[in-house]
Amino acid sequence: MAPQLVALCFDANDPLGIARFWAGVLGWELADDPQDGVVLLPNDDTGFRLRFLPTEEKKAGPNPMHFDLTSASLEGQQETVARALELGGRHIDIGQLPEEEHVVLADPEGNEFCVIEAGNNFLAECGFIGAVSCDGTQEVGYFWSEALGWPLVWDQNEETAIRSPHGGPKITWGGPPLNLKTGKNRLHFDLAPHADGDQQAEVDRLISLGATRIDFGQCGEGRVALADPDGNEFCVLTPR
After folding, report:
1. Residue 35, C-beta contacts closer than 8 angstroms, at least 6 positions apart
2. pTM of the predicted model over 0.90
3. What integer pLDDT is reported at residue 99 of this predicted model?
């Protein structure tokens, strides 16, 4: 049985502050977990929590992963933007074109996200977090489909997307050209085998799919650090 995607983790200079920002934007519950630290718990079908990890490193360059938040109407899009700005977010320019209708913002530590216009067909069946949008190759989309056991819901022109059979956000990869990876990503996934699974067997399976062992210091005790075929870090936890 494939592992569960249990968390999307943010490196943060102020974990509690960034957690409060995202709690306000998403309407999720803030919790202090003895095992995972500062976390947000979903109140919808997202299926994974957000976990905020302390770091002294400052953000340098764009993240290869960001949220696409959906809107039911123009007014709803404007309300999401206004709420994010009130909580400490800001508008940013990443080269979007004037005719594009989505709004590009950053949280107080510069983590990018988009508020998508109403009527976006690709995200029509998704919730408020419509997608985790990633910089990545077609190969890495195939890797994550096999790793999580999620079917491909898009595979065209080297762009790929997967989605859990249980719903929730899509995870998408935009294909080439990719931005140059210059250091550790500030966002990474935490995976965990199912309760009756085996961590080492899962690590071996992921390596057979194309992952590699690494050491990036953020997994924690009892967790195994790996990288996907594009070099993006992720952690494999003990069964839950």
Report:
1. none
2. yes
3. 63
How many whole angstroms separate alpha carbon 123 and alpha carbon 136? 19
Amino acid at 166: H
Give the max Cα distance, the chain: 51
- Following DSSP, what letter does each residue of 101-137 receive, concatenated? -SEEEE-TT--EEEEPPTT-GGGTTS-SEEEEEE---
Query: Which residues of the chain fall below pLDDT 70?
Result: 96-100, 218
> Could you identify the residue written with the tokens 């998704």?
126
pLDDT score for 97: 60
The predicted pLDDT at position 129 comes to: 98
User: And the tokens for 186?
Assistant: 């500030």
What's the pLDDT score for residue 194? 84
Q: How far apart are CA 223 and CA 233, in angstroms?
A: 13
Q: Considering only CA atoms, which of 225, 235, 65, 66 is closest in space to residue 136?
A: 65
Q: Where are the beta strands (DSSP E) in the chain?
A: 4-12, 29-33, 37-41, 49-54, 65-69, 90-91, 103-106, 112-115, 129-134, 152-156, 159-163, 170-173, 187-192, 212-213, 224-227, 233-236
Peptide bond preceding 177: is omega within 30 degrees of 0, i.e. cis? yes
